[in-house]
Amino acid sequence: MKNNSKGWRALIISLVFAVSLISPLTSHAATASMRNIEPVNVTFNNNLMFDDPEAVYEGARIVHNVTVDGEKGMRVHAKFQVKYGKGIPCMMIAYFYYDDADNSPLKAGPGNYRDAKGNVSAHSNFTPGYDPAVYNDLQIFVPYDALNMESGDQYDLKFYLALYDKEGGRFFGKSGWYKFHLTMP
């Protein structure tokens, strides 16, 4: 019995000693209001918001000898997607170049098929109605007269496509090169 009470006494002394060591540490862990610290509310938002549309190009091709409103020319057929662009007015622009090492742009004649630098370009306006919006065959017509080339000559040409956000005033996607051969009618 004497040994049993020594065990209890040792346990009680150990607990008192442990509490006396821990109690000074707990005074530093006072509540936030006692330390004049405002609590911070953290709310997690797992919704990703994209401000700018993104382009995914899937391919393009040229169809020659097409007539639109009495003008003979070629038509670009583009396949692409626009992500995060629902309801944003956009423009698909095709820029035309010689297929040479210098990537020389085709110089435009007078008319509507030219960019600000006087090079051949054509465009089509559209507004995505879905997110993502899938375009399997957006078409851009280019009359042969706009290419400013000699009739009967053969040319190796190429073009690339660029998507433009008309609301944000910026380009948001550029394709790679699409090459084609043209015999000017």
Large-scale geometry: rod-shaped
Major sheet details: 5 strands, antiparallel
Mean pLDDT: 86
Number of helices: 1
Radius of gyration: 35 Å
User: According to CATH, what is the topology?
Assistant: Immunoglobulin-like
The unreliable regions are none
What is the CATH architecture assignment?
Sandwich
- CATH superfamily label: Immunoglobulins
Order of helices and strands: HEEEEEEEE
Q: What count of structural domains? A: 1
CATH C-level class: Mainly Beta
Secondary-structure class: mainly beta
Number of strand segments: 8
Approximately how much beta-strand content do the residues carry?
35-45%
| Helical coverage, percent range | 10-25%
For the record, give the distance between the C-alpha atoms at the N and C termini, rounded to a whole number.
119 Å
Describe the structure.
This protein is mainly beta and 185 residues long. The protein has a single domain, classed as Immunoglobulins (Immunoglobulin-like). The protein is 14% helix and 42% strand. It is built from one helix and eight strands, in the order αββββββββ. Strands 3, 4, 6, 7 and 8 form a five-stranded antiparallel sheet that branches. The chain has a three-stranded antiparallel sheet with strand order 1-2-5, with no helix packed on it. The longest helix has 25 residues, at 2-26. It is rod-shaped, with a radius of gyration of 35 Å. The N and C termini lie far apart (119 Å). The model has no long low-confidence stretch (mean pLDDT 86).
